[in-house]
Amino acid sequence: MSELLKNYLGGRWQSTAAQTVPLFDPVLGTELVCVGAGGLDLAAGFAFARKNGSAALRTMTYGERATMLGAINKVLQSQRDEYFRIATANSGTVRNDSAIDVDGGLYTLGFYAKLGETLGNRRVLLDGEPTRLGKDPLFQSQHLLCPTRGVALLINAFNFPSWGLWEKAAPALLSGVPVIVKPATATAWLAQRMVADVVDANVVPPGALSVVCGSSAGLMDQLQVHDVVSFTGSAQTAALIRGHDAVTCRSVRANIEADSLNAAILLPGETPASSAFDLFVKEVTREMTVKSGQKCTAIRRVFVPESLYSAAAEAISARLEQITVGNPRNDSVRMGSLVNRTQLLAVQEGLALLQQGTQTLHHGARHGFIDADPTVAACIGPTLLGTRDPDRAEAVHETEVFGPVATLLAYRDVAHAVALARRGQGSLVVSLYGSDPTALATIAVELADSHGRVHVISPDVASSQTGHGNVMPQSLHGGPGRAGGGEELGGLRALAFYHRRSALQSSTSLFAHLPSAPM
Ligand code: NAP
């Protein structure tokens, strides 16, 4: 048996021989390490985090916790090469794609370390201004934000073992709330190693950061009234989380980030020679192929005016043709593999479903694999589907194929494009490409209620834009409806989830004695 990764819970490393699961290299098929959480005393572990972790973090100010995030970041930076090695082996990603996960996580951590410094020497935050409760200004209301006294259970998806951990843990720890992370089993190695490095470096108090790898059984049962759960994953598992007694009976606060049918829209008025067209084509290709399309924010539906359908199909297909697929250790490979053969099967099934109502414009089967055995590796070439009749392509607006697959859809006019984008029933992100600022602004506002982020690209931001799929900690991440209805990041907004709001009603004179840090 390969090395059994330990769980860090209750302030100590624990391993269990019960119910262990091996993790594999998705390209070579070799076993890497094992994980297992069967038989752990979860109740004692959660109690330890609540009592010791929470108490220690709560004695610290926001400024001190920001310094702690900086120290965590420093530890992780020093082990970066090792994280890239693990990502290549366990996620099958090329270096640039591993960087989105590894460096994306470290950047987010660094961002919250800096932002936290601005909150300084305080242990509670003020929310808004004092408001009179009557004619007399003597008795007023002031809202407070106080860190919740529970733990934050972070349940993560397989595609971002590093970023998924730190984008949640940074705001939680900055808020003074201890974290117990449960990484997705398939890629748990990277998250486990990062937690191990931080724990071994002794830069967080005991109980502030714990990791449980392997089965999720029993984790939700541990949650008590002041705890929170932040989940990222499929809509099916999200439904289980929402329906669990912890949420329905004990009012545990739940944040859900689920799947999403993100769109990119090329506005009318462009030509194949225009800069907006070029930016659009490049981004669609990039989004389809980065991390082999295993990004919750990836472009799945590609909208173009009817007159540009053929030109867009040709331009995107030509770019896809250049994508080399295979073993990420080979420098000539641009796109690595999916996370495992189970995902490969799921992508193949989803693709077959979408193909029933569409044409295949560029077939993934055109791509041979470099240094990878097709009978072993979870590799798949990128496929572009398309239809000029998007109203009837039901599955395209309902099925997330979590791989390098997107569908080109021809729209009649702007109202038609907006209506079609909304058929995603709430998405994480929509991107708009055009050169008319009035038209771009009008559609952006039209779509903002159904999209957590609206990414607007005009030629003037060609070299400064951050990309459709890149989640920046400065901006909100999450989307309504089908996308889960969650909210993460967005600068200091992220802290609200880990705080409780309370209305203080008192003499105005009391306010002078309150700590002051508006959010
Ligand atoms: P998943 O199968 O739903 O698993 C997500 C996490 O939930 C894993 O850690 C899993 O553990 C755990 N889990 C499974 N059953 C559970 C239960 N009954 N109670 C508690 N936890 C449970 O999702 P996935 O396949 O890892 O991720 C792919 C999906 O995530 C895609 O649909 C993608 O769109 C979505 N995603 C969304 C975002 C976003 O920010 N919106 C980001 C990334 C991915 P095990 O691995 O041990 O089963």
Any chance you could write out the topology, listing elements then pairs?
Layout: E1 7-9, E2 12-14, E3 21-24, E4 31-35, H1 42-59, H2 62-78, H3 80-91, H4 95-117, E5 125-132, E6 139-147, E7 152-155, H5 163-175, E8 179-182, H6 188-200, E9 209-211, E10 228-232, H7 235-243, H8 245-248, E11 253-257, E12 263-266, H9 275-289, E13 301-305, H10 309-321, E14 325-326, H11 341-355, E15 359-362, E16 369-370, E17 383-387, E18 405-411, H12 414-422, E19 427-433, H13 437-448, E20 451-457, E21 476-477, E22 488-489, E23 499-507, H14 508-511
Parallel strand pairs: 7-8, 7-10, 8-9, 10-11, 12-13, 12-19, 13-18, 14-16, 17-18, 19-20
Antiparallel strand pairs: 1-2, 3-4, 5-6, 6-23, 15-17, 21-22
Helix pairs in contact: 2-4, 2-5, 3-4, 3-6, 4-5, 9-10
Bound molecules: NADP nicotinamide-adenine-dinucleotide phosphate (NAP).
